[in-house]
Amino acid sequence: MKITPIIGLEVHVELATASKMFCGCPADHFGKPPNIQTCPVCLGLPGALPVPNKKAVEWTIILAQALDCKINLISKFDRKNYFYPDLPKGYQITQYDQPFGENGKLGKIRIRRVHLEEDTGKLQHEGQQSLVDFNRSGVPLVEIVTEPDFRSVEEVDVYLKKLQRIIRYLGISSADMEKGSMRLEPSISLSNDGSLPNYRVEVKNINSFRFVRMALEYEIKRQQKEPHIQQTRGWSEAKNATVPQREKEEAHDYRYFPDPDIPPIRMSNEQLAIIKEQIPELPEAKLTRFVKQYNLSQYAANILTDDKNTADYFEEAAKLSDQFADIANWIINKKADITTLVPAQLVEQIKKSQTAMPVDKTALEQAIKTVLSANPKAVADYKKGKTAVIGFFLGKISQAVKIPANDMIRTVLERMLNAR
User: N or C: which end of the chain has fewer CB within 10 A?
Assistant: First the structure.
């Protein structure tokens, strides 16, 4: 009997606004001494009234538009009621049935909703006691919820990395998991026939792609052996296992109702069009353009567009020289320090290395082609990231052209390797 994992994802992303979601306290809380960035609003004191952060609303809509969501012209905030030490009011201000965005997609994965809420405080466990730091309480938190469309751990990994790249390209968050600004919550159940099961297990607050993979792989094995119970679990790094936390709540358990202190938010199509103009060229589109416009290999274009700053640096250098493959090779393989070396200096370095070439370029390229064709396994190793084989290739090429290896030979070699 074939077992099919049915997986959905909730991804929480802290927005990099200057202030919190409903008050004027600074939102940059990481590494700050506990409880110094608080006020009556984010501490939930009686009589304190929330005022929505306009920038957070716009950034949530930008992300929803980038994920091809339908944007609701009328949205509202709701109260999600539950009692936990990190939630000072006894409820969280979030969105329930009228989020900013819904029915989107990223690749083949359907996005159910993109909504905005406030983050909770952070519990710190010390010995037998737990302390609460409310610096994080009230920080704008956007949540991206998928449909249960994933059927493998690998699909989850690809989706999460694509989503992180889009968020960083938009400039709305660092999406840094080590600092907790991107937190991952997969839900998984097992099916015998591919249909949706009547239970799901949610694993809360995972902070790395690797731990998501490990948690899902563990759950697939565990659920094959144990009774299928709907519950919330956590990931234990110490045990390399998921651990039970509580029975999984349903929506009615939270007693959602509209927040009476925040009126509905109404948007016009004209406002949405202005917001959409702020969306830059996104990673997938940029990668496709780099391959076509600069005649780069898929491998090189993928590395260059993985980070927006690197992609922008490459394009600035490409304005100064049409040796696009050489520029890409220096950035990717020579690890040019783009934080200190301006594009014009990089182009100048490439030109100097080429003028020192002591061999005919056509003859060199033919020699490299012969060496690469004769060593397909070494080429495959390089494509897998084993860059140490460069030394092997340089030795073979030096023997063929009868001169010592130099920067120019290495540059041409790397360009031809990446083009294969």
Answer: N
